[in-house]
Amino acid sequence: MSFEFPEPLWEANFFGNKPCLVCGNDKAVSVLRTVETEIAPICKNCSCDWNFYGYEALKKVKPKQLIFNLIKFKLAHPFCSNMFTIYKDLKKMQVWAAKMMKKCELPAPQGGGLPTQPPAHL
Ligand SMILES: [Zn+2]
Description:
It contains 4 helices and 3 strands, in the order βββαααα. The chain is α+β, with helices and mostly antiparallel strands and 122 residues long. Zinc ion binds at residues 20, 22-23, 25-26, 42-43, 45-46.
């Protein structure tokens, strides 16, 4: 059993008409996805970051700034997917991120988990 990231992401081609969900500034050209589902459409810039920094690139996301950028993007690109879809995508990314955080906060399992009794010398 592996305690690595439960849902590793990889980059796939993306042909939809969505904004980047990492910076919110640009049109997505690829998408970060798990086996089951697409998590975050990303633009060319963020794709470079992703290739360079991996998951660190996603930690730079600032939700408030991102939403603001997405609204700006939507106003400038009225034909991209509607705010409802964008919001749904954001939610999906949030759920995934929360799951990842939880996994990362867990102490590394050592020898079958925490002892149920405190050590005798304490
Ligand atoms: Zn981007």
